[in-house]
Amino acid sequence: MKPTVGFLVVLGLGITAIYFSQRREKPTTVSANGLVAMMANAQRDLTRAPMRVTRLSDGEEIAIGNQLAQEYLQSAGKLTPEEQGLEGYVQRVGGMVAAHAHRRLPYSFHLVPDRNMINAFSLPGGAVYVGEGLTTLMTSEDQLAVVLGHEVEHIDHYHCVERVQIEARLRHLQLDIVGALLQIPLAVWEAGYNKDEEMEADREGIRLAVLGAYSPYGAVSLFEKFGKLQKEYVIHAETPEDELSELAMQSLEGYFRSHPQPSERLAQANSLIAQEGWQDRKAQRAFRVEYEVRNGEYMR
């Protein structure tokens, strides 16, 4: 369907809705802003429809993800024994969560060894990355499970692979040419998604965490922490309790720009807990990394 035709269809539906609302005995007010929002949302879905129709197969998505992941691995340095221990911890928790994803993809979990990186991102096909700086803000394993579940759901719900198709179209890249997609910078994956997709990843990521035997209150405590950090470092409404480097503060500001407001995420988490009857699942596990080093080498 051409965009113009789609727009006219949506416009006709909106006018019809107003007409019938006026015929009710108790008329319902339909604001102009509400109508415009409805039209904008429908038009957005229309523009996304071709992506769904031409969706890549899982095999194609995995191959693309492997190309992108290989580029990232080449730019990453060797991990210290402490960083390897933390990555092993991330992999263990990630495996518990990803086991309950709908799509059976080769999910893998990696640490970005940068204490200034307060973010996490995922690539098509199953690779998930979490910044070391984000892990330093966590006080429970359940918080880590929620973050990893969020990233898994960006993959599970096709957000990542649709991003590939959109970027390829904008950059005039051929999806079937090996190496062409390496022109897409990794910053694209760190930039976040639209609000609906981010909220969906939150909601379904919490479900994955709960299925993995973690507490949904990991999300509550994490979003409360984010809200506090936003007041301290972005809005400057409170005096910071922790000292962050300039690069870490820039990363934190970028995270808040690319994600919904912490208050909205917190409200959705509490609503989901009430809806699912998870109020008794408050106990959280301590964030505890254990590893062994022999002769300066990390031992699994």
Topology:
Blueprint (H helix, E strand, L loop, with lengths): L2 H21 L8 H22 L4 H18 L5 H18 L9 E5 L7 E3 L4 E5 H4 L5 H16 L2 H12 L16 H4 L4 H17 L5 H18 L11 H12 L4 H15 L15 E3 L2 E3 L1
Parallel strand pairs: 1-3
Antiparallel strand pairs: 2-3, 4-5
Helix pairs in contact: 1-2, 4-6, 6-9, 6-10, 9-12, 10-11, 10-12
Can you describe what's shown?
By secondary structure, this protein is mostly helical. Helices cover 59% and strands 6% of the residues. The chain has helices at residues 3-23, 32-53, 58-75, 81-98, 132-135, 141-156, 159-170, 187-190, 195-211, 217-234, 246-257, 262-276, and strands at residues 108-112, 120-122, 127-131, 292-294, 297-299. The chain has a 3-stranded mixed β-sheet, with helices on both faces. A hairpin with a 2-residue loop joins strand 4 (292-294) and strand 5. The radius of gyration is 22 Å and the shape is globular. Residues 18-50 have low confidence and may be disordered.
